[in-house]
Amino acid sequence: MNGRVRSLRGFAVALCVASAAAQAGDLLDDYVRLQAGDFTSEVQARQDARYQVAQWHIVEIWRAQDPKQRWLYTEAWLAGAQGPYLQRITRVAQDGDASLVASRYTIPDPARFVGAYQDPGAFAKLRIGDLAALPGCEVTIVRAGAGRFEGGTVGDHCGANYKGAAYAVSTLVLTADGMTNWDRGFDAAGHLVWGPEAGGYQFRRSPAPDVK
After folding, report:
1. Rounded to two decimals, what is the model's pTM?
2. Residue 150, Cα to own-chain centre: how many angstroms?
3. What pLDDT, in 10s, does the model give residues 62-113?
4. Counting beta carbons within 10 angstroms of the beta carbon of residue 9, is it exposed (0 to 12), middle (13 to 18) or buried (19 or more)?
5. pLDDT in tens, 153-167
6. C-alpha of 22 from chain center
7. Fold designation for 2-205
8. Which residues, including other chains, have CB under 8 Å from residue 184's CB and lie 6 or more apart?
């Protein structure tokens, strides 16, 4: 009888472990499903002149590598620009059962991948080892309700030198309708030197527009 009880307890523990693993997997899948897509800040820009029309294209690459981590390519444009102002690759991985960590990487010779959001297979020629990590710029992400994720960098650990900044801060809110992305740079004294002061860029999900 005792052996049977121990067996049942062991089975219950195994079920709990399997359930936790499944929930963690769902967390990653749900996040990538919402994060991948085409986004525009056109509505916000029409309503508030402090914001420009920006368009972000985010696609998943290297899907078959490892189910516990996913890779995303981001390409961001300002309307009318001759080239993107942002190209990066992000690794999203589980951090326990309740959160994700998005680690950011720069791409060598990024110009050769302009427009590659339309052809993710182009990244087959790029190796993970070719990427350069941005230490301290990791974004911790949690589920904040049904169909909603929130995340951000931690403290002043994300180094930056653009426009005299000493560090950068990023926050993200992601929903089924779109995302709010707020990137700012601060000097060593904590003064804002770039990025919007009033709040983040509000992006709505959209078909992929041609902004070139």
Report:
1. 0.84
2. 10
3. 986 677 899 999 999 999 999 999 999 999 999 888 999 999 999 999 999 9
4. exposed
5. 999 999 998 899 999
6. 21
7. Lipocalin (2.40.128)
8. 168, 169, 170, 192, 194, 195, 196
